[in-house]
Amino acid sequence: MTAAQGAAHGADHGADHGGDAEPNAIDAPGTAEEEWRSWRLLNELPVLDTSGWSSVVVVAAHPDDEVLGVGGLLAMLAATRVRLRLVAITDGEASHPGMDQVAAGKLAEQRAAETTTALGRLGAPAEIVRLRIPDTGVSRREPEVREALRELVSGFQVCLAPWDGDLHADHEAAGRAARRACAAAGTRLLSYPIWTWHWAHPRDSRVPWEAAVRVPLSSGAARRKRAAIDCFASQLRPRGPQRPPVLPPDVIAHFVRDQEVLIS
Ligand SMILES: [Zn+2]
Question: Is residue 199 over pLDDT 50?
Answer without folding.
Answer: yes
